[in-house]
Write a structure and sequence with these properties.
By secondary structure, this protein is α+β, with helices and mostly antiparallel strands. Helix content is about 50%, strand content about 40%. It has one helix at about 25-50, and strands at about 5-15, 15-25. It has a two-stranded antiparallel ribbon. β1 (about 5-15) and β2 (about 15-25) form a beta hairpin. It starts with a strand and ends with a helix.
Length: about 55
Amino acid sequence: MSKNIKFNIQLTIDGKKQIVSAAMSVQELARNLNSARTNGDLLRNSLLRSVGV
């Protein structure tokens, strides 16, 4: 059985506060966090190359 994590997110749109909910499995969350980390590393390396550091 997959464990799920629920998020409550508060947004302010046009001055009105709204709360939305989202849920995802632990495996999906781990996959998305790893992807964000990899893409962040690629961006950092690209920026460092472009400024010649």
